[in-house]
Amino acid sequence: MANLLEKLKEMTVVVADTGDFQSIEKFRPRDATTNPSLITAAAKMPVYASLIDDALAFCKANGGGTPEAIAKRAIDRLAVVFGMKILGIIPGRVSTEVDARLSFDTEATLEKARFLIGQYADQGIGKERILIKIAATWEGIKAAEILEKEGIHCNLTLLFGMHQAIACADAGVTLISPFVGRILDWYKKSTGKDSYAPNEDPGVVSVSRIYEYYKKHGHKTEVMGASFRNMGEITELAGCDLLTISPQLLGELAKAEGDLPRKLDAERAKTLDIAKVDMNEALFRSMHAEDKMATDKLAEGIDGFSKALVELETLLTERARAI
C-alpha cells in the first residue's frame, strides 16, 4: 500500500521546506523553499562549512572591504549558493528570500530581487526556476506586481489574512505561502485552547478559504500551505496546489499508511457562493488593522527573519575575519 506522502503527491505538489540538501535528496520533492532561519541553521552545520568559506572568499575577492562588509554581501551569495545546490537535486523551482528588513520598502525590495535573479543568471539559471520570496506587506505585494511584469516570479510569504491573499492575486503573483501552523499558534495562545481537530484548525480553515476564493474567481496565483505543526494539518489540505513541508513531517507522512481523501477541490470551489472583493490600499490596511492575528504574526515573522539575518551576519563576520 502506498504511504501518505506518495498519495499526497498524486493530488498536491510537495515542496521541501529546508536548507538541508540531504533531506531534499531523501524526499525528492519537485520544489524547495528556504527562509533566513533555515539558511542560518544550515550555516551552522559543519557539513556546509566549505560552502560558507567559498561564499566569503568570493565576496572578499569581488569587492573586498571590512569583514562586516564582506559578510553582508556573502548573505546574498550564500542564498544563491544554497539555491544552486538545491536546483541540482530537484526538477522544479527554488524560493530565495529577499532580506526581511526590506519588507516595507518597495524600491529596495525590487533592487534586491533583481540582484538575486542576476546572480542566478550569472550561474546559467533562468528566471523560470526561481521564486523570489517577499513578505506579504502592501509594499512587498506592490514590488511583486512589478517583478511579475518583468518575468520574475514571486512567492509571497508571511501571509496570514484574506486581505493579503486577495491583494496578491490581484497583483498577479505566481504563488502565496499562507502560514498554517503560525496561525494555529496564535489561536492556541489567545484562546488557551490546547488543540483543534484538523478540520477546525484555524490555519487549515484560513488556507481552505483562500484556496476556494482563488478557484471561484479564476485567479492563477497558486496556493502553497506552509508552516505545519502536525500531520493532520497537511492531510486536511490534501488537494491544495502545493504544500511546503519540513523534513520531519515528510518523514512522518512517508511512514504512515491509510486513506487520504481529497479535501480541496477546484471544481467544487467554483460552485460556491463567494463574493469578490475589490482590494485597494485603504481597504488592505483597514482589514489588516482589524485582523489582530495577521497583524501580530506578520510583525513577528518579519522580526524573526530579521533577527536570523543579524545572527547570520554575525556568524559570517567572524568567519570572514579568519580568511
Task: Summarize the structure in words.
This protein is of the alpha/beta class and 323 residues long. The chain has helices at residues 4-9, 21-27, 36-43, 49-61, 67-87, 106-122, 138-149, 162-170, 180-191, 202-216, 231-235, 247-255, 266-269, 281-290, 292-321, and strands at residues 13-17, 31-33, 94-97, 130-135, 154-159, 175-178, 222-225, 242-245. An eight-stranded parallel β-barrel has the order 1-2-3-4-5-6-7-8, surrounded by eight helices. α8 (162-170) links the parallel β5 (154-159) and β6 (175-178). α3 (36-43) runs parallel beside α15, α5 (67-87) packs across α15 (292-321) and α9 (180-191) crosses α10 (202-216). The termini are far apart.
SSE inventory with pairings:
Layout: H1 4-9, E1 13-17, H2 21-27, E2 31-33, H3 36-43, H4 49-61, H5 67-87, E3 94-97, H6 106-122, E4 130-135, H7 138-149, E5 154-159, H8 162-170, E6 175-178, H9 180-191, H10 202-216, E7 222-225, H11 231-235, E8 242-245, H12 247-255, H13 266-269, H14 281-290, H15 292-321
Parallel strand pairs: 1-2, 1-8, 2-3, 3-4, 4-5, 5-6, 6-7, 7-8
Helix pairs in contact: 3-15, 4-5, 5-15, 6-7, 8-10, 9-10, 9-15
Strands ordered across the widest β-sheet: 1-2-3-4-5-6-7-8
Rounded radius of gyration (Å): 19 Å
Query: In which range does the helix fraction lie?
Result: 55-70%
Q: Per DSSP, what share of the residues sits in E-state strands of 2 or more residues? A: 5-15%
Task: Based on Cα principal axes, name the global outline.
Answer: globular
Distance between the termini: 53 Å
- What is the number of helical segments per DSSP (H or I, 4+ residues)? 15
**How many structural units, i.e. domains?**
1
Stretches where pLDDT is under 50 for at least 5 consecutive residues are none
Report the CATH architecture.
Alpha-Beta Barrel
What's the average pLDDT? Answer: 95
SS content category: alpha/beta
| Overall number of strands | 8
Going by CATH, what is the homologous superfamily?
Aldolase class I
SSE run: HEHEHHHEHEHEHEHHEHEHHHH
Largest sheet: 8 strands, parallel, barrel
CATH C-level class? Alpha Beta
Task: Write down the CATH topology.
Answer: TIM Barrel
